[in-house]
Amino acid sequence: METFAFYFFAVSITALFAVTVWSKNILYAMTSLAAGMVLISGLFFILGADFLGVVQLIVYVGAVMALYSFAMMFFDATGEIKEKHSHPGLVFLLGGLSAVVMVVIFAAPVIGASAPSFYPPVEGATNPQAVGLVLFTKYLVPFEVAAVMLLVAMIAGIILAGKKMDTSITEVTDDIGDTNERI
Amino acid sequence: MDGYIIGTIIKAILVLAIISALAGFGTYLERKVLAFMQRRLGPMHVGPYGLLQLAADGIKLFTKEDFIPSGANRLIFMIAPIITAATAFIALAAVPLLPEFELFGVTVRPIVADLNIGILFVLGMMAAGLYGPLLAGMAQKNKWGLLGAARTAIQFLSYEVVTGLSILAPIMIVGSLSLIDFNNYQSEGIGSWLIWQQPVAFILFLIAGYAETNRTPFDLLEHEAEIVAGYATEYSGMRWGMFFIGEYANMITIGFLASIVFLGGFNSWGFIPGGLAIILKVSFFFFLMLWVRASWPHIRPDQLMWLCWKVLMPLAVINVTLTGLWMMV
Questions:
Q1: Residue B288 has pLDDT above 80, yes or no
Q2: Is the pLDDT confidence value at B160 over 70?
């Protein structure tokens, strides 16, 4: 049952992401990317990592994809996109190399059959507790650094975007009028 | 194991059948309640008190021509309503609907999948449901539809933080993400209901829930006075019906979540048994949604964003901080 579920999810995810890469229609690309993200959470559920599966759902399917789709509003979603490939060879080489490196990194311990678990799951802890224990003891520093980095990015984003945030949008006067006067 | 699988399948089918029937009945209730609040009678002609209006609407929806506009992206256009309806029902899978009961000597637990992270799963799945309106709006090559899709994205970015932060404070108090633990925490009568400890979180969650289900002060996605029917402009027949079933199923889910997390769930309530108690609570929340719809005007998308990010989110953060301090002391 589990094997069947794994292969089902694996094949569907690969197929959906292949559509994302190869499709020239931006709407198909976005839909298949979102569907693939949903199915990846299925892999987490098979592994018994319920919490991470739901985090995958909320973060990638919810938040990240909502931002993508927000950017999609600037495109004509029903037409085909003309893609520009300036250096296809170079892209292929770099992409292929990094893919091979990733596969080797993640497959090496499995092939060597010696994947020691440095921080074995705590007995009796539920899923979120186990994640929290590792996150707030061993990985506390990377976790806090990531938090600070996100905070910096957020403040930068607000400063870049929010020049007139203290007035309501309906009360913002037209900028075009002002520039015309100056000209 | 086999019994478990068969039981789960039966439960899934029952939930699907009952909730979609209730969703259909919800449209009748909504028209009736709105009508009484506006001193009209509502549907009266088909059957006693217009009760068979439901069947008439159903026949109309099923037999109407399934129309796909020529410029639209056919595949996505056809998938979008299914996403809305499916995610609404998948979200219900992790909600305990009634207390345990005995049937033919077997103890039945009326929850399809008892996840230990139930509440996050429900919220995540309901968030994924927004892909329905989003893709529908973008696939139909209609400007009103596209505006509806843009508003979907804006609405999602507005309320999601408030939902998560408002529910965080009760989660901290209970110390679990399982909805059944929430229910058991409040088993000592009305005094132990979480609403007394977390009134702010309750109100924030309700407001965010209304935005999540596109109920009236925040139904910007299909605001008929501004953008015709928003994301549903080009839809007709059963595809349009699926959007509605999804929306009403989501309303019921929010009602269950609010009752279980804040109002004592399916614990028996004085002389009222638990099963009846939760049905009464969910009915009250359903009625409250209709009441709000009859009382309040729509707001603009920028007002929703202003409300969520400048008022509700700081309130929610303060609430979470105070709860944390109170728990430490």
A1: yes
A2: yes
Considering only CB atoms, which chain B residues are within 8 Å of A34? 131
Domain membership of residue A8 (yes or no) is yes
Q: Which of B127, B134, B302 faces A169 most closely, judged by CB atoms? A: B302
CATH (domain of A153): 1.20.120.1200
What SS3 class is residue A80?
Answer: strand
Tens of pLDDT, residue by residue over A19-56, are: 888 887 778 888 888 888 888 888 888 887 788 888 88
CA proximity to B193, closest of B172, B177, B170, B210: B170
Domain of residue A68 covers: 2-80+120-182
Please list every residue in chain B whose beta carbon sits closer than 8 Å to the beta carbon of residue A63: 160
Query: A57-84 burial string, b = 16+ CB within 10 Å, else e?
Result: bbebbbeebbeebbebbeeebbeeeeee
In a domain, A102, yes or no: no
Question: Measured between beta carbons, which residues in chain A are less than 8 angstroms from residue B306?
Answer: 168
Query: Is residue A133 assigned to a domain?
Result: yes
Question: Considering the domain boundaries, does residue A40 fall inside one?
Answer: yes
pTM: 0.80
Nearest to A69 among B76, B127, B134 (CB): B134
ipTM over 0.85: no
For chain A, the domain total comes to 1
SS3 (DSSP) at A24: coil
* CB–CB contacts below 8 A, A to B: 87
